[in-house]
């Protein structure tokens, strides 16, 4: 906040307050939208820098649609069904663990993978061999 009583100082303070309100609004919107807020994301949205978001389940769905088109060409129906089971299990895992409908690819890390493995083994009752196939 600028100190002083001139019209210029008041204008600066008004602008700073508007920026503060805008940043708070962006923060709350990102929190509501995906629950994952970073200073970089807030800055990019404030500056109007478009973030290309690629989400895991969105891309998995697109992949499965492509596999479905290839049934009878070089993919079997069983292969497609296995991919669909994997997508369903991932969807359930992300909803249960993160309370999200999808997760950004850049959020996928070793912890995510090991948590998914534990989920498959405990909640889904998969054995080691089945889990490895996912």
Give the overall shape: elongated
- Determine Rg (CA atoms, Å): 23 Å
Which band does the percent of strand residues land in?
Answer: under 5%
What's the mean pLDDT score?
89
Largest beta sheet, briefly?
Answer: none
Residue stretches low in confidence (pLDDT < 50, at least 5 long) are: none
Please give the alpha-carbon distance between the first and last residues: 54 Å
Q: What structural category arises from helix and sheet content?
A: mainly alpha
Task: Give the helix level as a range of percent.
Answer: 55-70%
| Integer tally of domains | 2
State the helix count.
6
List SSEs in N-to-C order.
HHHHHH
Number of strands: 0
Q: What topology emerges from the helices and strands here?
A:
Elements: H1 7-34, H2 39-47, H3 56-69, H4 77-98, H5 110-122, H6 128-133
Helix pairs in contact: 1-2, 3-4
């Amino acid at each position: 906040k600028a100190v002083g009583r001139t019209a210029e100082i008041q204008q600066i303070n008004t602008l700073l307050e508007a920026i503060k309100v805008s940043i708070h609004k962006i923060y709350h919107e990102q929190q509501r939208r995906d629950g994952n807020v970073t200073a970089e994301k807030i800055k990019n949205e404030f500056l109007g820098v478009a973030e290309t978001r690629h989400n895991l389940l969105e891309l998995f769905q697109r992949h499965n649609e492509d596999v479905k088109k290839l049934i009878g060409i070089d993919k079997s129906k069983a292969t497609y069904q296995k991919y669909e089971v994997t997508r369903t299990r991932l969807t359930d895992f992300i909803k249960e663990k993160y309370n999200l409908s999808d997760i950004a690819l850049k959020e996928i890390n070793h912890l995510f993978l090991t948590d998914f493995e534990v989920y498959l083994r405990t909640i889904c009752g998969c054995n080691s061999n089945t889990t490895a196939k996912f």
